[in-house]
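Example 4.3 (complexes with small molecules)
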Amino acid sequence: MRIEFVASDAGKSPSDGAAAVMVFENGHLSTAAEAMDKATSGALARALAAAPRFTGKPGQTVEIVAPAGLDVQRLLAVGAGPADGWGGDTAERFAAQAYGAVKLSGAKVLQVFTPGARAEDSARAAFGAALAAYRFDKYLTTEKPEKKPSIEVVQVITDDVAAAEAAFAPLKALAEAVYFSRDLVSEPPNVLFPAEYARRIKDLESLGLEVEVLGEAEMAKLGMGSLLGVGQGSIRDSQLVVIQWKNGGDSQPIAFVGKGVTFDTGGISIKPADGMEDMKWDMGGSAAVAGLMHVLAGRKAKVNAIGILGLVENMPDGNAQRPGDVVTSMSGQTIEIINTDAEGRLVLADALWYCQDRFKPRFMVDLATLTGAIIISLGNDYAGLFSNDDTLSENLLAASKASGETLWRMPLPDAYNKQIESMIADVKNTGGRPGGSITAALFLQKFVNGVPWAHLDIAGTAWKKPSTVPTIPDGAVGFGVRLLNQMVADKYEV
Ligand code: BES
Ligand code: MN
Ligand code: ZN
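Answer. The structure with zinc ion bound is encoded below.
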C-alpha cells in the first residue's frame, strides 16, 4: 500500500475507489462531508438519517455504494468524535477506521478527506492508515483472493500538499520502524533465532547505524554467566547485539536494552503446552529497541543513542540450566536459579551491566515481556513502569500520554528485596507469586549500578489478539517504538 497526498481542489475522483469523510458527534458534518452531501443531492444526509444508531462516535461508519453524483464506488462516513479538539490521535483513528472498513471491498484507492485540517493532522491521518495496513502475510501461500486487502493507494486529501508531506516525513520513518518491529515479533521462532535476528539487525547499517554482534565466546570472556546460562540448553548460539546511533555531538548517550528471548519454553521449569506458541514474541522488548534505533536513524534524530539486544533461546535439553544452579553475572553478583522460566531477568542482568559499564549512559530504559504477573496487575492496555528516577519516569509518562502507548508506574519497595534473598548466592531469580512483577524489577535494579533507569514490563502489551484499536491489526503491536521515539524527540535531542 502506498500513501499519497493530493490537493483538495485536484478534482477527479478515482472510479475504482472509496472516499472517506468525517462526521462528528451529534451528526455534525465535516467540510468534506457537506461537499459530498451536496454533490450527491443530499444522499449522505439521507443515509445518516436512515442509520439512527450512527452518532458520529469513533468506530462507527455508514457506507453508500455507487452514490449518484460521484465517481467513486463508495462513500464512507466515518465517526470522528467531537469536532472540538479533533486532531492528532483522532486524525489517525479516522483514517485507520476508514482503511479497515474498505480494505476488503475490492476498491483499489481510498481517498481520506482532511480539508480544513492542519497539515500535521493530514499527516497523522496518513500515519494512521499506514499503521492500520500492516500485515504479516509472507507465509500465506493459499490465501483466498477475497481475504487479501484490495487497497493499493491511500490518498490523503489536504489543503497544503507540501506542508503535509513535510509533516509526514518523520511519521513515515516511524511507521517503517513500527513495521520492522512488528515483523520481528511476528516471525516464527524456527526462522527468527538469535543469529538470524542479529543478521537482520546488522542489515540496519544501511540506515547509518553501527551494529556489533557479540557471540558466546566474547560474552564468556566478559563474564556474562547469567545471560549465557539461559541459552545453554539451546543449540542456537546466544547473541548480544549493540546498536549505536551517533548524531548528538559529544552529548552523553542514552541507552535502551531489550529482552530478546526468541522462544521461551520455560527451560527445565517447562511451561504448559497450552498457549506456548505465544512465547515466540518473548523478544518483543528487543524488537521495540530495534524499532526505536530504526526510527532514530530513519529521521536522523539529533541524539546519541545505544540499543542493546540480549538474544537467547530458552530450551530444555541435556545441557540446559537446572533449578538450583548458581551462576555468576558480569557484575560479579552470583544468582541462584530457582525457576529456569524466570529467564528474562537473567538476560537483562548482564545486558544492563554491560551497557552501563561500557557506555556510561545518561540513563537506561529496558523493555521486556518479563512477567505474566503484570498482565494480572494491569491487563493489556498498560505496560508497567518501574524506575529509580522520577525525572525519567515523568518523561516516559508524558511520552506515554502523547503517543497513546500507555504506562502505569509501579512501586519498587526496598522491603520486597527480602523475597529474592538466597541462602547460597547473592540473589535468587524468583521471589514467589506476591508482587511477581515488582520482585522481577527489584532483581533488575541490582544490575544497573545506580544509573538512572526505567524498566517497562510489556508482557501484556506486546501482542494484541484480538485488537480493538484500528491502528493495530491483530498480532504484533510494536509496543514501545512510538513511546520511546516520542520521549527522545520531546526531551533528549540536542
Ligand atoms: N516470558 C515470560 C513472561 C510472559 C508470560 C510474557 C505471559 C507474556 C505472557 C517470562 O519469561 C516468564 O516465564 N515469567 C514467569 C516468571 C516466574 C517463573 C517467576 C511468569 O511470569 O510466570
Ligand atoms: Mn520464562
Ligand atoms: Zn520469558
